[in-house]
Amino acid sequence: MVVDQLAILGFTALLGGLMLSYARRRYNRAKSLSRLVADGGEPTAAGEQTINGPVEVESPAEPQRRPPEHHNPDESGGDPGIWAWRVQREQATDGRHWKTLDGGIAVGDIVVRDDWDRVQIDAESLWAESVEDPFDADHLFLGEPDIDVYVEERDGVLADVSGDYGPVKDVEVSVNIGNETTTPDRYQATAIREGEELRARDTIADGGEQPAVRGDAAVGIGDLSTRADQLHSTARRWGAGGALVLVLGVSAAAGTVIF
């Protein structure tokens, strides 16, 4: 009986702790994003300043990895000033989910026109070697990737022994093989192009000819206010769920809950 209670307590402590850890990270991202949205253009006491405006691309970004050849992206919007990308593989552990294998962010020679000022964005301010996924980095708020395509072209069909696809020709199938599946890896990316709005928060340094963002800049695009609300809501749900799991685990181990 004691062993069973300890096993229940250990399992729920692990699960609840993971849920609370995830909630904490969502909360920290939400707090950073809310600060990015709320800050005005005046420098803070710490010397940080928020800039907001259209991107001007003087030389385009050159990503380390581009979309697969079978994908033809719409590049009518102009040259990309920033290109964030990642490659993910589907995992079959703890339910199916995608794990980031590789990722990066390329920054061209760009400036953000903030009213009358032109502020340069330094590449090192957006990317560090320790960051694995630009779409889940603590300081980058890029939303959902604009490009989402399998690295390899996928037939997505079932065939019988004779090779006759029959009525299931267009059925996509993914089979588990150990911890992975037969689903091809996927390439995801977002490009911030000439004229698109970008918001950044950091210490604005003297860049010589023009001021520049150099540091661990918080950068966001799109509807940041809505995204901040969504992150706050996610953090609350996971936090409440993690706390509930811990309470139920302690109660069950103590023998006060009958399942």
Q: Name the overall outline.
A: globular
Question: How many beta-strand segments?
Answer: 13
**Poorly predicted segments:** 155-173
From the helix content, strand content and strand pairing, which structural class follows?
alpha+beta
Question: Any idea how many domains?
Answer: 1
Q: How much helix is in the residues?
A: 25-40%
Brief account:
Mean pLDDT is 75; it is low at 155-173.
What does this structure look like?
- The chain has two helices and 13 strands, in the order αβββββββββββββα.
- It has 259 residues and is an alpha+beta fold.
- The chain has one domain (43-234).
- Strand 4 (109-114) and strand 5 form a beta hairpin.
- The protein is globular.
- The model is unreliable at 155-173 (pLDDT under 50).
Break the fold down into its secondary structure elements and pairings.
Layout: H1 2-38, E1 48-59, E2 80-91, E3 97-107, E4 109-114, E5 117-121, E6 140-141, E7 147-150, E8 176-177, E9 180-181, E10 186-193, E11 197-205, E12 212-213, E13 218-220, H2 224-254
Parallel strand pairs: 5-12, 6-13
Antiparallel strand pairs: 1-4, 1-11, 2-3, 2-10, 4-5, 7-10, 8-9, 11-12, 11-13
